[in-house]
From TrEMBL:
Tagged with keyword Nucleotide-binding: yes
InterPro entries: ATP-grasp, BC-like_N, Biotin_carboxylase_complex, Biotin_carboxylation_dom, Biotin_COase_C, Biotin_lipoyl, CPAse_ATP-bd, PreATP-grasp_dom_sf
Pfam families assigned: Biotin_carb_C, Biotin_carb_N, Biotin_lipoyl, CPSase_L_D2
Cofactor: biotin
Protein name in the entry: Acetyl-CoA carboxylase biotin carboxylase subunit
Species annotation: Alcanivorax quisquiliarum
Keyword Cell wall biogenesis/degradation: no
Keywords recorded for this protein, A-Z: ATP-binding, Biotin, Ligase, Nucleotide-binding
Domain ATP-grasp, first and last residues per copy: 120-317
Coiled coil: none
Domain Lipoyl-binding positions: 574-649
Source organism, top-level taxon: Bacteria
Residue ranges of every copy of the Biotin carboxylation domain listed in the record: 1-446
Gene Ontology molecular function, alphabetical: acetyl-CoA carboxylase activity
Amino acid sequence: MINRLLIANRGEIACRIQRTCRELGIETVAVYSDADATLPHVRGADRAVRLGPAPARESYLDIDKVIRAAQENGADAIHPGYGFLSENAAFAEACARAGLIFVGPGADAIRLMGDKAAARQLMAEHGVPVLPGFDEAEPGDDALAKAATEIGFPLLIKAVAGGGGKGMRIVNDAESFLEALAAARREARNAFNDDRVLLERYLESARHVEVQVFADQHGNTVHLFERDCSVQRRHQKIIEEAPAPGVSEALRQQLGEAAVRAARAINYQGAGTVEFLLAPDGQFYFMEMNTRLQVEHPITELITGEDLVAWQLTVAAGGQLPREQHELTINGHAIEVRLYAEDPARQFMPSSGTLAVCDWPELPGLRVDTGFGRGDQVSDHYDPMIAKVICYGSNREQARRRLRQALVHTHIAGIRHNIAFLLNVLAHPAFVEADLSTRFLEQHNPDTGPDDGTLPLRLAGAALLLRERQRAKTGNDPWDTLNSWQAWLPARYTVTLQQDEVMHAIQLEGPDNALQARWNDTTVALHWHAASGELRSTEGASMQIHGAIEGDVLYLFCDGHVDTLSLRPAPLAGGAMGAAAAFAAPMNGTVVAHHVEAGARVDAGSPVITMEAMKMEHTLRASAPGVVHALPFGPGVTVSEGTLLVEFVADDAETTEG
């Protein structure tokens, strides 16, 4: 019996575990870094303990601090969540030495499955199919290059100690192998302190299908069916669904049996996920086993009606599995998207900052798992996921439609995010038809940036929202302090707004059913339905417009896009950044590598410097041929967004100066 549980994690998963603990009457102890002191997972716990500064190695990854926090606060068990110490065998052993229940498998299982090479070898021995590859212990670069040629291209370089897409590179030819190998080793070393890699044949049109398994201490092992996680970016899952579309009952049984066989091969206990690549011909291959609760576990909960965290706590306390295999059934369909703080229009660069707006809708079938709220700070020290938005339906199409509606009515501002991108993916014909593969985004290339074609409609919507607010204002309305509204007239309404460095003076005329919006040389004829927020042009384009006002800023939400409009427009200083603009730090982060030395001449597209932020690497490349004059910041130096990382002069700039 667990009475008090320390949750050795943060954010969304910590809040998720707390929810089950409250239902079971288990007290919770939260831990936090200085960057997370005010987040909901701290506020929602019965007790909270500061671990240390923001860097994870000084807080969430410090085993001694976590164990001490549990002991000093009377916890009898620790739940690691996912990420951080969740698949750390030394942490599981430290819990055992301290007399604490570790909510997860034994250290031996973690260690074995954490070594991707050893896991491949063991699965092959137990009849679980594996891809052709090379998994010898600690080979040198020359041996790997030779093996790559023998395996053939394309192939995948995979970190032996990896997970979460870190330390993985797809290589299409021998010429690019060594550069990709160096990048994979470096990322693996930074993420796992282990730069060993293995090689596997890369299946270009395969699906990523995984099976949820559970085992207890009494010899019982079951699976809770499969999930499809094929829609990925840089090997990071973005959209997951259960059950996997198009999987027959016969194939489902084969996948489940293979997953259970894998778990039994290592005497597994607790929650685990066996991941497979599913080829177009129906053959599947073992990829890896994650010895923890998965990010995407909610979709399995929704189709089975089971609480997987409650299962974990039961098994960890010595109890038997709550269900036998024949008692588990699939009901309906569930789809989950990962809402990230990132900018799809800038190659998905991570974003950080304060959530000026964070509003979730209430809709049928919707579940939102998040660890953030309005006013919370999204730190650049950790994974950029803000929330998981999950929808359930009686079938896949209902779940998909509900999820799109939920995202349209989700309002996040203050940081950049991927809502509009997710909406585009969910609406893509290939996704609608469940034509899925791990190359989905590469093959179909959904739009990543704002739809500039809807800008006139969005700006007109901003002016309309302001007009509606003016009509409804009271004596205590903050708009009373804005001088620009004092000249408002019902028949003609003009407002000047600033978007980035561009000023827009928008004039509205006429009643709602025959509106005209004008600015510069643009005129748009509109119909406005204030009750629903729908704005429709006479050309047929339409969108739902919602807004939030914080101080002198209007945040406008339209089909997943966010426009940030200043209500007190003023000219901005500054000009062109010149040829070196490509080398300004695109986000807060740490320099990890120089690819050239000062004085080097580079071609357009050549890698020059790599930085790491939110656990992902980003390589900055020359936008034009030129000379690297200086590299002011060496590896290990932390820089802020906008910092000039490379003193670079393009060839055309030198010609102009001469």
